[in-house]
Design goal:
Helices cover about 15% and strands about 30% of the residues. It is of the alpha+beta class. Strands 1, 2, 3, 4, 5, 6, 7, 8, 9 and 10 form a 10-stranded antiparallel beta sheet that branches. It has a 7-stranded mixed beta barrel with strand order 11-18-15-16-13-12-19. A hairpin with a 6-residue loop joins strand 15 and strand 16.
């Protein structure tokens, strides 16, 4: 069990999301940064879809109530345990009474705390993830507050290797200002001038961005087409509403929408986009679907390598 002694402004339980409820209008949801989420579970040798804590927007602290192994990934942060600094992407063992403190998030937006065994909250529609707009999943469908306790699933495997560390060069380049895209289903509705504006301009992440979508501030993408009939949507789709300013749909993206979709963010680069803070800039670079698929396979291969190295270290 974990007790949250000082909650950050945003803290929820997330896993890989709900994969079987899209036809009922329930977004997939899950971790915003799928790679950092996957790496956290790989490092502590959890199942790939085990639930973790998604932490953002500030510092805080939690007390460990029983011995466990954990790691943290994603956003760069200064983290300590019992006043001793601990490293990211590293298996750390904590005993009952130890306090983990996130002193400051230095860069990036979302951190992931993975605990051996996983976070234990009820499974709803095939997932433990929190969906805040619907007020369900996770811990009573809400953010975790100061004083809350969160259970852990008992470990079903041998303990992970102590102080296994994942090298930084295996993680995405979160400091990259380039987000790769492929042409969207309505790409043909935008003329050459619109595409030049979209791919040559620098866009800032708006302060009104959240888990549903990241609004962009910058040059409008020409005159968007009229509203289209609603069709299926998905995380990564980049919509262009009436003001011409792109919106990138994120983990809690609605399942349908009527705005024209000029592009889709490469799945391999969704973690990079997810970690951009409001006010930070990005540029969109067009690639082919084949290049996007290869990049995603590399990401998946890197996660598998992290898992294999962690398992090898525990032997």
């Amino acid at each position: 069990m974990i007790t949250i002694t000082k909650a950050p402004p945003y803290l929820t339980v997330q896993d890989g999301g709900r994969r079987t409820s899209l036809s009922s209008g329930v977004p997939r949801g899950g971790a915003m940064d799928s790679f950092a989420f996957g790496a956290a579970n790989a490092i502590v040798d959890n199942d790939a879809d085990a639930a973790v804590l998604e932490w953002a927007l500030g510092g805080g602290a939690m007390r460990i109530e029983r011995d466990c192994a954990f790691c943290f990934t994603g956003a760069s942060a200064r983290v300590s345990m019992n006043a001793r600094v601990i490293a990211p992407c590293t298996t750390t063992f904590a005993g009952a009474g130890d306090e983990i403190v996130v002193e400051q998030i230095l860069a990036g937006r979302f951190m992931y705390f993975g605990f051996a065994g996983g976070v234990d909250v009820p499974v709803l529609l095939g997932s433990r993830s929190t969906y805040l707009p619907g007020k369900f999943g996770g811990l009573a469908g809400r953010t975790i507050k100061t004083g809350d306790t969160v259970d852990l699933v008992p470990m079903s495997r041998a303990e992970p290797a102590k102080e296994f560390h994942c090298a930084a060069d295996m993680m995405p380049r979160y400091d990259s200002g380039i987000v790769h895209i492929t042409a969207g289903p309505q790409a043909h509705l935008f003329d050459d001038d619109a595409w030049r504006t979209f791919t040559a301009s620098e866009y800032r992440i708006s302060s009104s961005s959240d888990r549903t979508g990241y609004r962009m501030e910058g040059p409008p993408v020409g005159s968007p087409p009229a509203l289209l009939p609603s069709e299926a949507g998905c995380p990564g789709a980049i919509q262009v509403p009436g003001d011409g300013l792109p919106i990138a749909l994120m983990a809690d993206a609605p399942t349908v929408g009527g705005y024209a979709k000029i592009a889709v963010v490469s799945a391999a680069d969704m973690p990079i986009l997810a970690q951009r803070r409001p006010g930070e800039s990005i540029r969109f670079e067009l690639i082919t679907p084949e290049q996007s698929h290869r990049a995603l396979k590399r990401r998946q291969s890197e996660l598998q390598t992290i898992r294999q190295l962690a398992q090898r270290s525990s032997r």
